[in-house]
Design goal:
A: mainly beta, 5-stranded antiparallel sheet, 1 helix, 7 strands, B: alpha+beta, two-stranded antiparallel ribbon, 8 strands
Amino acid sequence: MKYKFSEGDIVQVKEREMIAKSLDSSHMHDGCLFAKQMWDHCGEKFTVIKIVKNIFDERECKIYNADAPLYILNNAICNGEVDSFKQRCDHCCFLLWHEIWLEKAN
Amino acid sequence: MGCQLQHLEKLKKQNSPVDSCLQSRIKIIWEGKKRLIYIKNKIGGLLKLQDDIATQEVDVPIFKNGDRVKVKSPGEINQILDDWGATQRCTFTPEMYRYCGKNFSVYKNVEYFYDEVKQRMCKCRNIVVLDGIFCTGKRRTFPADCDRNCFLFWHTSWLEKID
């Protein structure tokens, strides 16, 4: 898989309208969910800290290749507020960003 | 709208049958290894004098977000771990030993977390995550490293407050 960005690159999250166009009815692109809290980051700049090439599935105890170009960005951590959860999750996962939602920062 | 963890399934590229079979074998080996360590620790504990057996109460400090803490030494932590290498079911993984004796800030107290294995929200106590300490994703037996960069979970008994 080809990746547009490298680790250390400064990227900007695209504007709402552009991201909205990329999402299907389940708020996903290529199977990657654009979570509600991610809208707050539109227009913000971040550093790419990792390209997510492999994902460990805790349930199956197996490692899988990611089927989409995904990145994790510095300080873009889930705040745990998810509509379907009764409690706020404190897991503090890094949010996964699909390449299509990002552009190189000027 | 849910959480990205609930939809990880959709992000996975299917493994080849050979790879899948090899990884299933790793899981069986892991489970066997875990049980062997448990038996070894159990027998080791039984052979020791009663006084030496780790029956002492575990000191469980409470930290606030932002508190500066020091990770205890390997010797101190090993005394707190049970026969499964865990404290109150929080596992101290081998990669955590490298942080012993070092100072960090508490990033967050963990009260609830989404458990990927159980696929539901779980309540926990005496767990914190430390600022800047992430899982390396390296597992010798697997064909590749995990890139999810998760925070490691720390039981508060493994830590001590510093001024």
